Amino acid sequence: MAQNYDVVILGGGTGGYVAAIRSAQLGLKTAIVEKGNLGGTCLHKGCIPSKALLRSAEVYATTKNHAADFGVNTGEVSLDFSRVQQRKQGIVDQLHAGVQGLMKKGKIDVYEGIGRILGPSIFSPSPGTISVEMNNGEENEMLIPNNVIIATGSRPRTLPGLEIDGEFVMSSDEALAMSELPKSILIVGGGVIGIEWASMLNDFGVDVTVLEYADRIIPTEDIDISKEMQKLLKKKGINFATSAKVLPETVEKGDGQVSIQAEINGSNESFTADKMLVSVGRQANVENIGIENTDILVENGFIQVKNTFQTKESHIYAIGDVIGGLQLAHVASHEGITAVEHIKGNAPHAIDYDLVSRCIYSNPEAASVGITEDQAKEQGYDVKTGKFSFKAIGKALVYGESDGFVKIIADKETNDILGVHMIGPHVTDMISEAGLAMVLDATPWEIADTIHPHPTLSEVMGEAALAVDGKAIHS
User: Fold this and answer.
1) What's the average model confidence in pLDDT over 338-362?
2) Comparing C-alpha atoms, which of 195, 149, 156 is closest to residue 333?
3) What pLDDT does residue 137 have?
4) Cα angle 154, 159, 162; round to 5
5) Residue 392 in contact with residue 403, Cβ under 8 Å?
6) Residues 431/357, Cβ–Cβ less than 8 Å
7) What does pTM read for this prediction?
8) Which residues participate in catalysis according to the annotation?
9) CA 96 vs CA 13, 42, 43, 107: distances in Å
10) CA pair distance 153, 155, nearest whole angstrom
């Protein structure tokens, strides 16, 4: 028997389940179709498990290498990686149970299976009826929604010819499930995910080499952040090869190791390690969900949408990684809320992606909001910048983490903040001040005039804001 809904969401990841909660809050009868576990990639194969591992790595490295600096005598420090993995899974399980509870609280129906959009039928004159192939093998469920939200997310991408085998060559999915650490690893890709894994594995004691195609790591970030990150990670013992074009056809596996060649400055160099992690971005999950039964437009592998997140089929919306753009969990959540508000007939504000904070959870951390200095100049701004080091911040010295800085970019003419870029201790927790400042169209003077408590790491924001006009106090 077919079930009628106001909204059916394909995918129960961060974007999907948040959209479902807002939909239920607005009084809409709502269902989610999810073939895996609620919470999706972020909860089970991305944000949460990787950050749990990063925290264990940080504690291990700090205890092993720096405990004596704090007057703490630890003796011999060892790592129990099985306990590390158990802790990670415990956090994931707790949060998963929380999401399941939220579905029950909101009276949101959850169908465990694969949902496909059908074409026009007796149920609906336009595409949108959902057929659910249930995981338990029971007869397919038919859902008749007034509106559909596609939130099917993404999966790790690889390079043609560099196939993931799970033993020698891994994506982040397989790496998260490792039962033991390798002695050495090659990481193909020096973007956000690659750098987080490089930092984590290095802190765990693994010999790490990063191969990056661009001329610098994290190439989408401000160049000063890229340079500082590479300098600090290199100081910790991570090896980097930039401007490195990996040659998949040269992969060799055997004797417990994997090797590959990369073209660097016109000549081929060979790299060998126990494992290889391929981290070259993510591709949208647009297959096998019935898009071919609709007029939805897909370009370069991503579903095309308006700023309301409507597809070419006005009653079918798409959000999150499946539409490209900023493939971040917090972005997917806000896209989902915006889509549901539009379905309800409200007038939500369009998302300004330049005001979205971006975080890298490596050690050291990095975070940014707005545009880079190079982007600002390319867009014709006459810029002024302020930069302030954590080395002059008392709380950073107390923490024993004083590397890094905050950089603020402003428009000379209007004094508007164009971008804020940070690298150093706990900056992923500090970037929201900068994000709020930009949302409220604050100036560096207004940030500087905000009294930051002492001693805190946040004082670096006030000093960097003063530095924009050459008025920093402690430099």
Assistant:
1) 96
2) 149
3) 84
4) 120
5) no
6) yes
7) 0.95
8) 454
9) 11, 11, 7, 17
10) 7
